Amino acid sequence: MSTAEIPASNDSSIQELIAKASAAQATYESFKQEQVDAIVRDIGKFVFDNAEQLARMAVDETGMGSYEDKILKNKGKARVIWNNLKDKKSRGVIGEDVEANLMLVAKPMGVVAAVTPCTNPIVTPMCNGMFALKTGNAVIFASHPKAQKCTEYLAQEFMKIVKSHDGPDDLVQVVTKGSVEKTQQLMQSADVVVATGGAAMVKSAYSSGKPSYGVGAGNVPVIIDRNIDLKDAVEKIVDGASFDHGIICSHEQFVIAPEEDYDKTVKLFTDTGKVWFTDDQEQIKQLRGVVFNDGHLNKDVVGRSASEVGKMAGIDVPETSRLILLPADGSGIEDVLAKEKLCPVIAIVPYSTFDDAVSMAKANLLVEGAGHSAALHSNSDDHIQKAGLELPISRLVINQASSLTAGGSLTNGFAPTTTLGCGSWGGNSISENLDYKHLMNVSRIGKVITDKIVPTDEEIWS
Fold it and tell me: What residues are annotated to the active site?
């Protein structure tokens, strides 16, 4: 049962949300696995079935991203998240550890405060809502102001689904007329916080005094190894980096290519018909200045098309181009293009040895994005292991389009999610993808292991 707090001196609207959510959760806690799963399934199916309408709402309200790609994102995330959740036990007895003679019992955490971003105003509330309800919790959304209408609409529709399955009123709610102060109070009052958004907000979640799951900045370097299908690698990088106008935190940001194949790699990028490339130093300078203001990402380019970003720099980038490719002066602190660019602009540099490539990728991550993700196109197990061992990352995406698969897919083992933990490198509490299991407590019932042979002191210390 929820132990959410209601500070007497704070905003009464948040107090009311917490009180209603706690009451709803107390009722919902008794729901069986089949009842819970029916609700969670229908929430995912609602987003899947209404992908076009929801994509249009998101683009119209936030002004960010690609309508066509958001349709694919809505369908894809709904599909993969439900596919992962549908057979998982999350209520009551969920399993046994026979060897340890333990029985595992799932218990809800209570009221989940889910703080959601404007970059993913549909799939993030969907994902966090599905996780919260899967584990017997109530959820209250606090959205970025740019996505308030989308979030309110989703909460309303999700509650219709809850009621259609005889669920309690107020199980899914949203903060209206949101503000930083209201969001902070919500985080301080709920039982657990899931914070997906900017660094300041995530830091606030971790200082709320409540258990919190946040994310760190992304800045995915992608290494192209030797002796691979170069054309296939380039096509996957283009698909990943251009998706939803580069708004996804796990999208490829910085291409590190073998020096002898550098020109060939650039040509393969442009041959896709989706990539605009320039090595004109003045144009590079103009674009660098538009994407970054005094070394900081320009919020006005976030989620804009390649053509729009070009226009801001006074450069005619064709409407057919989905991605801008620029040669960087180096990695790490050597060029600001080595930082995260939440728009369809990526950089490319050559490398001599694979050790050099890993060093470049690491330099980028230590400037920005440590703990998040890196990508590698390789057929060498030794190189894959080397990159995995040396890079400060929570996930290494191999031979896949990073932005489309780092958050889980039907063909890899990453947990399907919209919230990617970055470990202690990124100031986060988890170094894996947020999953439903992070929103439930597990009681362990321990019995004596009757056939356990107790070792002697001599055996223990030998």
Answer: 249
